[in-house]
Design goal:
- With about 220 residues, the chain is an alpha/beta fold.
- It has one domain: Rossmann fold, CATH 3.40.50.300.
- The chain contains eight helices and nine strands.
- The chain has a nine-stranded mixed beta sheet, sandwiched between helices.
- α2 (about 35-50) crosses α3 (about 65-75) and α5 packs parallel to α7.
- The longest helix has 20 residues, at about 130-145.
- The termini are far apart.
Length: about 220
């Protein structure tokens, strides 16, 4: 495996500062765009390409190993070897999610992940029983994140639904991605970035070896320091 790698998601490496994903903090990436999941998949790929393990808790049946594999391959690594470091648990009911989060401490002790990725945590909690379970589950996730010094990232559709609002309200950092036909907007706290995506197959020089710095390919419109 090579030490250098290429970036497959310009959002993560341009508009979103990877160093902002700090241990002991819960970050929410929200929005209806497919780029929300893509950004999280890129984070998974970056971690495993560095030789680190990742725990994925899938609450929306949306984890796509092929997308992660493509990102890993684009970074110049062997997908099969890298994907062995991603440990996935899927929940299809609120009770299964409760059991997975309850067992997260043991899983973290076993694999020592650099990233805990939770896909669409609130999706399973639309029933009355689900609403009763959701608060304690979210509290448990935050406590595990802090006590074990984890980098935890949760995806959400955002909007006015109570579950998504509750997730955002308990987050230490909220990133919102809005995708239009010709522009992508990334809200990161008080900052707003705009990014013009490239057509499929087109790349920039900085997409290859060498990397880039936060904000290099996008315009910071407000909250500039």
């Amino acid at each position: 495996m090579r030490a250098s790698f290429r970036h497959s998601n310009p959002l993560l490496c341009g508009c979103i500062d990877p160093s902002g994903f700090e241990p002991s903090l819960l970050t929410v990436i929200e929005g209806t765009s497919g780029l929300v999941s893509e950004t999280l998949f890129t984070m998974c790929a970056l971690a495993v390409c560095r030789g680190q393990d990742v725990i994925v808790v899938d609450g929306g049946n949306s984890f796509n190993p092929y997308a992660v594999s493509r990102a890993v391959k684009f970074m110049g690594f062997e997908p099969r070897q890298a994907l062995c470091r991603i440990h996935v648990a899927r929940a299809f009911t609120e009770y299964q999610m409760d059991a997975i989060i309850s067992g997260l401490h043991e899983a973290v002790t076993r694999w020592n992940p650099s990233l805990v990725a939770v896909l669409y945590l609130s999706n399973l909690f639309s029933t009355q029983d689900g609403k009763k379970l959701f608060g304690p589950i979210l509290k448990n996730l935050k406590e595990i994140t802090r006590s074990l010094n984890l980098v935890t990232v949760v995806t959400s559709f955002g909007g006015i639904w109570w579950g998504d609002r509750m997730v955002a309200g308990n987050a230490d950092r909220v990133i919102r991605i809005d995708e239009r036909k010709t522009i992508i907007k990334v809200h990161d706290g008080d900052n707003l970035f705009e990014y013009v995506p490239l057509p499929p197959g087109q790349t920039r020089f900085i997409d290859f070896l060498g990397g880039e710095i936060n904000g290099q390919n996008c315009a910071k419109l407000q909250g500039a320091t």
